[in-house]
Design a protein that fits this description.
Elements: E1 2-7, H1 11-24, E2 28-31, E3 43-45, E4 51-53, E5 60-62, H2 65-71, E6 77-79, E7 84-88, E8 91-95, H3 99-106, H4 112-122, H5 132-140, H6 142-157, E9 187-191, H7 195-202, E10 208-211, H8 216-219, E11 225-230, H9 234-237, E12 247-257, E13 267-269, E14 278-281, H10 283-286, E15 293-301, E16 308-309, H11 313-327, E17 332-334, H12 346-363, H13 367-382
Parallel strand pairs: 1-2, 1-11, 2-10, 7-13, 11-17
Antiparallel strand pairs: 3-4, 5-9, 6-9, 7-8, 12-15, 12-16, 13-14, 14-15
Helix pairs in contact: 1-12, 5-6
The protein binds flavin-adenine dinucleotide and uridine-5'-diphosphate (UDP).
Residues 86, 95, 148-149, 152-153, 156, 168-169, 171-172, 269, 271 line the site of uridine-5'-diphosphate.
Length: 383
């Protein structure tokens, strides 16, 4: 009898498997319908021998020392600060928009204070910042919004930024200095030997059995287990009984070029042209030296594997209905980006999984704890 059936071997499922197995000594069956562990963070060596990310670029960043320390038990790190260029008006300029972005695009020589005034003169007054359009036009004005955000967002989400919650474009800041890093977090690095190696170390416990290419519905009534952790789409778990929760999908086109380098940074965004949103060249992330180079083109899609919850009020409402069902379902915990319908980065999913582990530990004493309590109880009775 397994103590836990954990569905999904991404960050949410693997962190919980690791904690439950190693900290409590629980017996875990960790399954995934895919043929690999790691969830969307899975990476692999392609036919040319270049390390690529099967589901698009994954850059680790966090402000939490505790999360960085926890993951450091399973991997060494390669220091890496992410930089992105946007292909705008025929030029490659930094995104997030910064001083160099504006000076390059407009042929200006502004300083940081000039740029503040320049933005202020263009920013539109928005009474209440609600949507992904509001966030940007209220800071930098409509022209830069159109150049950098409108087209990209329409491609990525299949809807206008005015229809999306403000949290989506708010992920990308605006700067008046020359800082061209995509993230400002205190810890930014890549797992030195890749994400998959890190996941392997995480689930390498005699208390964890991993079964791949295994559907939850095919084994849930066959394999005896006390409790379940589900990290797949929450609407799927409940048989879509309130209707489908919208998720955005992507098609990835992986290519290898017979040349050493393709672009100056790891990611180039295409907000104005092309059907794809961005192109990733992995060597910049991995530091790998090779005579060839591998790239991924991302084509957003309505159909396909669910990758992104779509932050809009009506979707949140539908999710809340499923969440109420989840809360009323005994012995099943819902964790991760798909099961809690949150546009979470990897570190946020790790944090959510660790918090869930603490709640489980508070709610369920281990078999060993129970024995100790009995022993103490018996001792006290005798005394
Ligand atoms: P997932 O990784 O999706 O894992 C869930 C697993 O459950 C999947 O492997 C799935 O196959 C399995 N599953 C689902 N249903 C079933 C079932 N019924 N039976 C069996 N198995 C099932 N985050 C960052 O911090 N930095 C980045 O740079 C970054 N870039 C990203 C780029 C892209 C293109 C995408 C899509 C995401 C990116 N993320 C990034 C987010 C990151 O991928 C997620 O935060 C993280 O992987 C979520 O982990 P998870 O365990 O919740 O879900
Ligand atoms: N975005 C944009 N133009 C860009 C970069 C981002 O319009 O050049 C918007 C777009 O809506 C995108 C969101 O900001 O989905 C968040 O960007 P991020 O790079 O965080 O997306 P992710 O890496 O999660 O796909």
């Amino acid at each position: 009898m397994y103590d836990w059936l954990i569905v999904g071997a991404g960050f949410a499922g693997s962190v919980l498997a690791e904690r439950l197995a190693n900290e409590r000594g629980d017996k875990v069956l960790l399954i995934d319908r895919r043929n690999h562990i790691g969830g969307n963070a899975y990476d692999r060596f392609d036919e040319a021998g270049l390390l690529i990310h099967q589901y698009g670029p994954h850059i680790f960043h966090t402000n939490s020392e505790a999360i960085a320390e926890y993951l450091s038990r399973f991997t060494e790190w390669r220091p890496y600060e992410h930089r992105v260029l946007a292909h705008v008006d025929g030029k490659l300029v930094p995104i997030p928009i910064n001083l160099d972005t504006v000076n390059t695009l407009y042929g200006l020589e502004l300083g940081p204070e000039d740029l503040e005034a320049w933005f202020a003169a263009r920013a539109e007054a928005v009474a209440e910042i609600r949507t992904s359009e509001d966030v940007v036009v209220s800071k930098v004005g409509r022209e830069l919004y159109e150049k950098f955000f409108r087209g990209y967002t329409r491609k990525q989400w299949g809807m206008d930024p005015s229809e999306l919650d403000k949290s989506v474009t708010a992920r990308v800041p605006t700067r008046t200095n020359r800082d061209d890093r995509y993230f400002a977090d205190s810890f930014q690095a890549m797992p030195r030997h890749g994400y998959t190696r890190m996941f392997e170390a995480m689930v390498a416990s005699p208390n964890i059995n991993v079964m791949l290419q295994t559907e939850y519905r095919d084994i849930r009534d066959i394999v005896p287990h006390r409790r379940t952790i589900f990290t797949g789409p929450i609407d799927e778990f409940f048989g879509y009984r309130f209707g489908r929760l919208p998720y955005r999908s992507l098609q990835f086109r992986h290519v290898t070029l017979n040349q050493e380098n393709h672009q100056p940074v790891a990611v180039v965004n295409y907000p104005q042209t092309e059907d794809y949103t961005r192109v990733t060249e992995y060597k910049h992330l991995t530091g790998q030296e090779h005579l060839k180079t591998s790239l991924t083109y991302e084509f957003p899609a309505a159909e396909g594997d669910p990758y992104y919850p779509i932050p809009r009020p009506e979707n949140q409402e539908l999710f809340k209905r499923y969440e109420r069902l989840a809360l009323a379902t005994p012995d099943v915990w819902f964790v991760g980006r798909l099961a809690t319908y949150r546009y979470y980065n990897m570190d946020q999913v790790v944090a959510q999984a660790l918090a869930t582990f603490r709640r489980i530990s508070d709610a369920l004493p281990t078999e060993a704890d129970t024995r100790t309590v009995h022993a103490i109880g018996t001792g006290a009775a005798k005394a």
